Amino acid sequence: MVLEGSSEALCPPPSLELRPSCNKSQPSPPLGSSSQPHDGVFLDDKEPVKYGELIVLGHNGSLANGDKGRRRSRLALYKRPKANGVKPDVIHNVSTPLVSKALSNKSQHSISYTLSRSHSVIVEYTHDTNTDMFQIGRSTESMIDFVVTDTAGSSSSGGQGGGAAGEGGGGGQSAQSTISRYACRIMCERSPPYTARIYAAGFDSSKNIFLGERAAKWRTSDGLMDGLTTNGVLVMHPAGEFVCEPAPGVWREISVCGNVFALRETRSAQQRGKLVENESNTLQDGSLIDLCGATLLWRTPAGLRHTPTLKQLESLRQELNAARPQCPVGFTTLAFPSLAQREIVDKKQPWVYVNCGHVHGYHNWGFRKEKVPAGPGGTAPPSTGERECPMCRRVGPYVPLWLGCEGGLYLDAGPPTHAFCPCGHVCSEKTVGGWSQIPLPHGTHAFHAACPFCGTWLTGEQGHIKLIFQGPVD
Prior knowledge:
This protein has 474 residues and is mainly beta. The chain has four helices and 33 strands. The chain has helices at residues 99-102, 301-304, 310-322, 429-435, and strands at residues 2-3, 17-20, 32-33, 50-56, 74-78, 85-94, 110-114, 120-128, 131-137, 146-147, 165-167, 184-189, 196-200, 208-211, 217-219, 225-227, 233-236, 252-254, 260-261, 287-290, 295-299, 351-353, 359-360, 367-369, 383-388, 395-396, 398-400, 402-403, 418-420, 425-427, 440-442, 446-448, 464-466. The strands form eight sheets. Strands 1, 2, 3, 6, 7, 8, 11 and 14 form an eight-stranded mixed sheet that branches. The longest helix is centred in the middle third of the chain and has 13 residues, at 310-322. The protein is elongated and about 80 Å long. Mean pLDDT is 81; it is low at 1-44, 154-175 and 371-384.
């Protein structure tokens, strides 16, 4: 557990034992920073250098209430006008009652590890001119660059409520949220190839990270410190090129110092998993970051060049409608609604039987009743809500089709010929094939493939279906 830092302004005791501290597992490890004002995330009049973009899964292009400021469904990380990164400098062994006194310098970043009621270890950080830092979390305080709240349908993520980092006063969105107020931080090197690395936990308003006595923490083999946050930060790197041969990797947990571990038995267990020495915290195109309540996708500038822009998605929509697909029963012309029109079904909108892929216009017949014994008093059994396709007689869900509007979730710019089951979000064949293989965290130790546009768990043998359109009669 990471607790909120002390705000006392006292001088550190001169008797603290100091020694150099660094993470030897990676070259020049950047472990955090203080965030500049958020206008600094974007560059000035010179050509911007983009490190990458973070996209929250389950939001089809924008949050339900719209993207506002730092609370949005997608954020691009640009090189800052001035570096704000920090790196570990010295380590202090101090009596626990003196921790607040030792952390008096509010301009000094630090991580405090409480080992017992009488002993703590404090690692101080110094400015790093070679890195930029971006912090992610549920808090709306100014040091958070990307405010992330629980994605609908994933609030029961199974971890301990209240989050992992800096639980305490205001700034949170919901007392029941499992996303930490200061969930993680991403450090980006300011020089090519602009490597981005992720670390669990973020610095609070006092520029501190506190791992309390109950948090999973330990001394490393070289005498340094490391630890995990309460509900953990999980990362999965793709096994291959995300846009070429998408294949899921293995979910791992990232520590406060950026080391990689196998998953704990449950999300908030105090016993850490085994150290995975041959893997790193370096983000690559297609890396997934799970914050126990929301999952983020990291896309690099090179990877985004393979994805469709909003203008291209609109062109694909117009091409679909220009083909004048028809309902094979009602013979009405179907049309995908505007990308700006969401959650409001249009009367011309195509619908699909997800078990077979036949596309129709909307109709209110074809319901099938569940074959169960009659209810009390001989009442009729309830309807399952499933429909029988008039073309092939297969029975299954019957849902409206929606184009996937978040281009960053696509694996290519191919034609929208397939749909996820059972939600009906439409995109390219390569995109549905890739996402249907990826298990996303749910609960304390469960994983399910889900539609990246809405978060709905996928069903059926493949999790997606090829759409069968009826062309115009004339």
